[in-house]
């Protein structure tokens, strides 16, 4: 499943793809990742669902213009607009990392309606961000000028650290590739510099208004975002369920794909 379509939105080109038939499912990726983390799951689900993948502006195969903000607010607006472009009303949404904040804000602030929401190791409430994340936020322009080989080594080490079991070289290469080259390198540092915890604080104040089925999954060995955050998030969303996936870090898609797929299949409604 490849992102062969383009959606022009506010001067940006958003890469997206759709496959299958049946109830609609939309995936949201996080940072510093792309829709690649969800591709195998979308392909498998396309037998019973109409699955939708997209790269957020500034990520993956979508445009990476230096003058375009890539914060949570912009991404939430983009997702709500994209749902309208797809003609979807109440899809099932599955989100990872800061895709959680994006999908929550699209629902709470942009009026996007979902049939259900699954949140997987999400950035959704404060605090968030590693020491590296903070350092990059303080020096985005300087780091954007690093020699390419040093930059690539940094990104590889950073992304590898999201996995508890360790990523295969081929998978790591795929996740790193969009952040290399003339456009990718500065975009990597811009998207971190654009982080604004204000959006997470706003989300936290509004979570009690959520009135839809919510399932929270968390890698038990997530060193980027502790499972304690998952427990806090569960307490803030009325009726939300939480399950920990043992043997998985932040990139649960790679660390524990079978348990994660079992959870997704159990969560989504059976095709009638």
UniProtKB/TrEMBL annotation:
Keyword Nucleotide-binding attached: no
Domain AB hydrolase-1 stretches: 27-257
GO terms, biological process: acylglycerol catabolic process
Entry keyword set: Hydrolase
GO molecular-function term, one example from the UniProt record: monoacylglycerol lipase activity
One Pfam family this sequence matches: Abhydrolase_6
Top-level taxon: Bacteria
Name of the protein in its database record: Alpha/beta hydrolase
Biological source species: Nonomuraea deserti
Statement: the UniProt record of this protein carries the keyword Ribonucleoprotein: no
GO cellular component, one term: membrane
């Amino acid at each position: 499943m490849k992102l062969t379509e383009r959606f022009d939105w506010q001067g940006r080109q958003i890469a997206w793809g759709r496959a299958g038939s049946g109830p609609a499912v939309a995936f949201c990726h996080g940072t510093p990742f792309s829709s690649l983390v969800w591709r195998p799951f979308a392909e498998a689900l396309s037998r019973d669902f109409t699955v939708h993948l997209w790269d957020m502006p500034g990520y993956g195969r979508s445009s990476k213009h230096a003058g375009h903000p890539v914060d949570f607010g912009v991404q939430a607006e983009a997702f709500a607009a994209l749902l309208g472009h797809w003609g979807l009303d109440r899809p099932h949404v599955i989100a990872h990392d800061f895709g959680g904040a994006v999908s929550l804000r699209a629902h709470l602030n942009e009026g996007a309606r979902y049939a259900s929401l699954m949140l997987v190791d999400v950035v959704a409430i404060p605090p968030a961000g590693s020491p590296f994340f903070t350092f990059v936020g303080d020096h985005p322009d300087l780091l954007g000028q690093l020699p390419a080989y040093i930059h690539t080594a940094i990104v590889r080490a950073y992304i590898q650290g999201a996995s508890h079991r360790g990523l295969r070289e081929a998978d790591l290469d795929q996740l790193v590739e969009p952040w290399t080259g003339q456009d990718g390198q500065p975009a990597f540092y811009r998207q971190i510099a654009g982080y604004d915890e204000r959006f997470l604080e706003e989300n936290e104040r509004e979570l009690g208004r959520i009135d839809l089925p919510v399932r929270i999954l968390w890698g038990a060995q997530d060193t980027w975002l502790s499972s304690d955050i998952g427990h806090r998030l569960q307490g803030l969303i009325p009726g939300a369920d939480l399950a920990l996936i043992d043997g998985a870090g932040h990139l649960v898609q790679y660390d524990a794909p079978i348990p994660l797929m079992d959870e997704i299949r159990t969560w989504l409604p059976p095709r009638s």
